[in-house]
């Protein structure tokens, strides 16, 4: 995989879509807001269409059948992400009109129709998408969009861990955080081995903060777009609705160049060694030095395990949004089994 400062630029259609990949809390939101501030490019808040609906696809049957795809389009359009985060601006009937004009319809063309219809509301000629959980369905994403560009952002896992531990979702101890981080990076890297070198680019969050213009110029070259200074003015843009509160507060402040390597002062030896005991190889592969005085292969103590379970349970209870989304998907699946055939 090419580094952010060495990837060659290849000609590409100005309508070619692109996808931002990365582990949650790795700078995917920052990067998507920077790119969205470009005058020609638009990236919505996470749609979650692939990870939420692809696993349900069998219930909808053959999407070439008009009645089946109408059910799927209605369910996607009615999802919490599209209704709240994208503020319901996508007209389901317009999506269906796009699909009706196609000779053959599959899940990829449904997704593309939603994105193109959203793009139309933004008044820009090219769309991209950022949903970190696409890592869980990335093989299908690559199958449906073999022509796309894939922009992968990586952040030091120890800083990712600090951010994850402060959220309602995700792991609540260093070892689980390390497994979580490694799992995302490994899935994305493994899938990108299938992608042509000129269709993929990996950038590091720390480089983006230290040399924003250089990295953004490289990204624009990778996308075959001209760099625009407006990308550095992303904080002046209206934020997507319902973006996570702490994330929104940071994005409103603009580029925080010092928001890196915080783990060096904030983490104790025990936390560092527990994390590195799992993630040492991945850290070194991504160019992050392992610094623990010893690599701990110990399991968590009983107290640490109980604390982690408690925090995770509290987080899940507080995360009403995820609960609502899970119930909605279950209802969609059950209804589709009855209505589609």
Structure, explained:
- This protein has one domain: Rossmann fold (3-Layer(aba) Sandwich), CATH 3.40.50.300.
- Helix 5 (92-100) packs across helix 6 (107-122) and helix 9 runs parallel beside helix 14 (269-285).
- The chain starts with 17 loop residues before the first strand and ends with a helix.
- The chain is an alpha/beta fold and 341 residues long.
- The relative contact order is 0.18.
- It has helices at residues 28-36, 49-53, 66-77, 80-85, 92-100, 107-122, 138-144, 157-164, 174-192, 205-210, 212-222, 245-252, 263-266, 269-285, 302-318, 320-339, and strands spanning 18-21, 41-42, 126-130, 149-154, 200-204.
Cα(first) to Cα(last) distance is 43 Å
| Mean of pLDDT | 88
How many domains in all? 1
Low confidence ranges: 1-13
Helix content: 40-55%
Label this structure with key terms.
disordered N terminus, alpha/beta, 341 residues, Rossmann fold, 16 helices
Explain the layout of strands and helices.
Layout: E1 18-21, H1 28-36, E2 41-42, H2 49-53, H3 66-77, H4 80-85, H5 92-100, H6 107-122, E3 126-130, H7 138-144, E4 149-154, H8 157-164, H9 174-192, E5 200-204, H10 205-210, H11 212-222, H12 245-252, H13 263-266, H14 269-285, H15 302-318, H16 320-339
Parallel strand pairs: 1-3, 1-4, 2-3, 4-5
Helix pairs in contact: 3-5, 5-6, 8-9, 9-14
Quick structural gist:
The protein is an alpha/beta fold. It contains 16 helices and 5 strands.
């Amino acid at each position: 995989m090419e580094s952010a400062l060495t990837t060659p630029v290849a000609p590409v259609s100005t309508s070619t879509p692109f996808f931002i990949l990365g582990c949650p809390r790795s700078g995917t939101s920052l990067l998507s807001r920077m790119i969205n501030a470009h005058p020609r490019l638009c990236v919505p808040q996470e749609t979650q269409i692939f990870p939420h609906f692809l696993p349900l696809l069998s219930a909808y049957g053959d999407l070439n059948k008009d009645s089946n795809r109408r059910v799927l389009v209605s369910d996607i359009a009615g999802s919490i992400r599209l209704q709240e985060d994208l503020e319901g601006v996508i007209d389901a009937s317009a999506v269906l009109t796009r699909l009706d004009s196609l000779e053959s319809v599959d899940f990829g063309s449904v997704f593309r129709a939603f994105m193109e219809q959203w793009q139309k509301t933004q008044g820009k000629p090219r769309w991209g998408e950022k949903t970190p959980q696409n890592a869980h369905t990335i093989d299908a994403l690559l199958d449906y969009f073999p022509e796309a560009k894939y922009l992968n952002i990586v952040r030091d896992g120890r800083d990712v861990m600090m951010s994850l531990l402060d959220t309602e979702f995700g792991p609540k101890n260093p070892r689980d955080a390390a497994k979580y981080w490694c799992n995302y990076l490994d899935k994305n890297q493994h899938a990108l081995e299938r992608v042509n070198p000129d269709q993929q680019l990996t950038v590091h969050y720390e480089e983006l903060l230290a040399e924003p213009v250089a990295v953004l110029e490289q990204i624009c070259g990778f996308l075959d777009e001209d760099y625009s200074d407006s990308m550095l003015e992303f904080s002046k843009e209206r934020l997507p609705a319902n973006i996570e509160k702490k994330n929104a507060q940071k994005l409103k402040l603009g580029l925080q160049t010092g928001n890196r390597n915080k783990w060096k002062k904030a983490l104790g030896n025990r936390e560092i060694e527990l994390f590195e005991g799992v993630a040492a190889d991945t850290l070194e592969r991504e160019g992050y030095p392992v610094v623990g005085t010893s690599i701990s292969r110990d399991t968590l103590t009983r107290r640490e395990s109980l604390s982690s379970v408690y925090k995770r349970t509290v987080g899940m209870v507080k995360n009403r949004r995820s609960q609502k989304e899970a119930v909605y998907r279950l209802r969609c699946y059950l209804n589709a089994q009855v209505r589609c055939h």
